[in-house]
Design a protein that fits this description.
Length: about 525
Amino acid sequence: MLFQFIKRLRFSLILMLVGFFLGSCQNLMKADATKFSVKYLIDREQSLEPAQLLQRLDSLSNWDRTSFNKMSKKHGNVWFHLDLPAGEIPRVLEFQTLNLIEFQAFLIKEDGELQLMALSNIPFSQNYSFRLNSSGRGVLILLKQQWGGIIRGFNLISIKTHEDQQLFRVLGTGLVMGLFLLSFLLTALVGWSQNQFWLLVIIINGLIGLLLEKKIYLLLDFSLDSEVYLKIFSVQLAINSMAYLRIIAEKTGFNCIKFQNYIKHFLSTVIITFMAIGFLAVEQEELLNIFTNPFQLNILGFIFVYFYCVMMLVASWKRRPHLHEFAVGFTVIYSLPFLSNLTVEGTLPPIFDLWNPDYRAIIPLILSIILYKDRELRLRSLTHLLEVQNRNKDLFLARTSHELRTPLAGMIGMCESILEKKSGLAAALVRKLEVAVNSGRRMNQLIGDITDFTNMRDGKLKLERRPANFSQIFQTMLPLVNPAIERKQLNLKAQIPDNLPKINVDENRIQQVLFNLINNAV
């Protein structure tokens, strides 16, 4: 049973393992990192200068991830002091962050002089790096007052280790962008639907988020402050929440239930309201006393949507087996931010900080594949329907042919019986009766051709070949085209040698070919 379950969800599990691998790339080579002492001080008045802080180093508190890790507008500025151990030069100081924008760093030289450090604005990473080209006693880092951001830690690593990590990050970012683009192409190939629209919104939203979080916008010499950054993040989160809500409600069939539609609209209203409150809190300083981050309510709205979507997926597990991969992927991947948030709050140890924004590329890919599979199923269903209708057409033609032949056989038989007693009949009347018989036989053959058409399409057409005189074939067909020739006052001259040998053909088919050629010429 367990094996069948894993086999059914193998694609989703493989994608998640790839995602976890990408996330783990950012933590590679930690063994090479040098440990050192870190202290911090919150400057709510934002009045301290670097030189003043050097005189107050004894008043700084020891820092770890559980003591202080989230920036807020009410904190003002935050200072960090790092004691640099002796080591090889040059090396790289890596500041591990999430959504931090504005800060400065100063190198404390051996003589106590402060030197402003140049930030290595290297994209493809959420972290910031400083290259230490000279020795020093320590480093001061100033986090300027901003709306949000998370401090994860500091690493002192060699140049080679930093280059290797950067290579992994570039490759990981390229792979994630590739997954988003693959999802976009698969979704674009699907026939237009409401789900396709919302999935394209999620994919485009994810690409924008990737450009922001990996600081790829630095390649365009573009800069953001923390307020604009969090506003964009808030809009993205709200759009993604509503998009997933609508897609999952439609795919699980809950949108057909009136009460569930009310819940969907209520949650959408809540998300928009929470986003508006966040934007209002940016302008109204007194509201910041309630929230550490003005956009915390947006995260709360996403949590509501997440649990409601999981409820819909669980409730439709048996009825929608094709959604199993998406249900597992969505539930597992979007549970990771909750674990990471608990580590930020200090409830869980840092080992549970598993969330990486790169994982978001997996969900649109699974959804786009599901939509593409649904398209294939629809096409197969339509193909089957067309095949059934085609078989019904063939059956109709076969029965119609049979019904048409019955009265036609009577007319041909009647004319033939008159011709058997043609003595005493005028020559003109005899010719007309012969034309009527030949035309009847020709009509009978055309009716047979209806059946032959079906057989020819299926590759079952049979030709009755036997030796025949071409001149006789032509003379048999000639009365059928003479009326049309006479109406247009044309002359038909046929020059057929008398000593022409017999040919091995199907007489009826050759007559049909000659009739069509002459008729088209007339």
